[in-house]
Amino acid sequence: MELRHLRYFVVLAEQRHFGRAAEILHMAQPPLSQQIKAMEEELQVTLFDRSVRPIELTPAGKTLLREARQILQQMSRAQAMTKRVGRGQEGSLVIGVTGSAAAEFLPPILEAFYERWPDVTLSLREMSSPAQLLALEKGEIHLGFVRPPILDDSLGIRLVHQEPFLVALPDSHSLAASPAVRLADLNGAALVIFDRDEAPGFRDLIMHLCQSAGFFPGRVQEAHQMVTILALVAARVGVALVPRSARHLTPERVVLRPILDDTPLIELYAAWPRDRHSVLIEELLAVIDEARITQAVDLDPTPV
């Protein structure tokens, strides 16, 4: 079994879909299926339950995922550290990040990175996902933390974080005291949401989620930033669907409640130009991988 096979397995385990995994790995789906099948034959175990959609890891597959992530992270770290020692490299990274990711996901990552690279200068720019993708293309930032979709084949991408949706309500709302909210119960309420230029994929996901759950807004109020969305909720303009990380930005007079409907997790990806991949980017990605291994991903939607 080669390291690239472990990489194939990890990507498939995260995506739970052969087609999406093949796209991320820039390979056709049949070779990916063959490689996974060969791994199962070599190990004499079944790694994925293919009878369900999306596919699920078997107990053996979950064990391999944990070990494979550790192996890949250690190899990545060894390569990055070797280059660092060999070059005596210092430098800087300019990073783009969405507001909600900056509030929750990024601080522990940056802390761990600074412990290893104290002489590196990190510059953070809060930007929308479309603005980050444009800045990556122009070379204005080295790496961005963006929401999907990411359609540029010149970018390397990696899933780095997932979190549930919460519903943001004015504290005077009739459902504010409820432990959780069903979206259909909000039918007819005004919806505060990102405008299309700011977060097209995120907006489309929210609108599809609302309609699928039977929540048809009486009107739509657009905003450019998460802080503005929450401020409008506090002003009783409407309600909003927000990432759980928005709890760090929530003003007074706004309450966050779990959603009873079956909702997808909100994904955050690291993105960087493939032709400008650097030791510092590799080390930052290694720190993120290590954090995902050592800290269980808490998907409990209950706000604190």
Structure characterization notes:
By secondary structure, this protein is of the alpha/beta class. It folds into three domains: 1-88, Winged helix-like DNA-binding domain superfamily/Winged helix DNA-binding domain (Arc Repressor Mutant, subunit A, Orthogonal Bundle); 90-161 and 265-304, Periplasmic binding protein-like II (D-Maltodextrin-Binding Protein, domain 2); 165-258, Periplasmic binding protein-like II (D-Maltodextrin-Binding Protein, domain 2, 3-Layer(aba) Sandwich), CATH 3.40.190.10. The protein has ten helices and twelve strands. It has helices spanning 3-15, 18-25, 29-43, 59-87, 99-103, 106-116, 129-138, 200-213, 226-234, 279-294, and strands at 48-49, 56-57, 92-97, 121-126, 143-146, 155-163, 165-170, 191-194, 220-223, 240-243, 254-258, 266-273. The strands form four sheets. Strands 4-3-5-12-6 form a five-stranded mixed sheet, with helices on both faces. A hairpin with a 6-residue loop joins strand 1 and strand 2. Helix 1 (3-15) crosses helix 4 (59-87). The radius of gyration is 21 Å and the shape is globular. The termini are far apart. Mean pLDDT is 88; it is low at 294-304. Belongs to the LysR transcriptional regulatory family.
